[in-house]
């Protein structure tokens, strides 16, 4: 593995915050230095989702959302 690059494991789950959307409507986020394209993520920028990696490459991955993360509320505040 090259320094600075991380490969996500297919089938693993991660919490990813949507930071942008592409022209196909996929949510875009990051896990470490890996860009994650979240298919079928009908969410606004800033929402955090629990996702499962479906296809992984060295610098990017595709994922499917499992549901909205419950650790954050709308403005990003932690739930107590």
How would you describe this structure to a colleague?
The chain has 80 residues and is an all-beta fold. The chain has a single domain, classed as OB fold (Dihydrolipoamide Acetyltransferase, E2P), CATH 2.40.50. Helix content is 0%, strand content 44%. It contains no helices and 6 strands. The chain has a 6-stranded mixed beta sheet with strand order 1-5-6-4-3-2, with no helix packed on it. It is globular.
CATH class: Mainly Beta
The first-to-last residue Cα distance is 39 Å
Uncertain parts? none
> What's the number of extended β-strand segments?
6
Assign the CATH superfamily: Nucleic acid-binding proteins
Strand fraction: 35-45%
What does the radius of gyration come to? 12 Å
Named at the architecture level, the CATH assignment is: Beta Barrel
Give helix % range: under 10%
**Number of helical segments with 4 or more residues:** 0
- What is the string of helix and strand elements? EEEEEE
Strand order of the largest sheet: 1-5-6-4-3-2
Q: How many structural domains in the coordinates? A: 1
Task: Report the major sheet.
Answer: 6 strands, mixed
By secondary-structure content and strand pairing, the structural class works out as mainly beta
Mean pLDDT value: 80
Tell the overall outline.
globular
CATH topology: OB fold (Dihydrolipoamide Acetyltransferase, E2P)
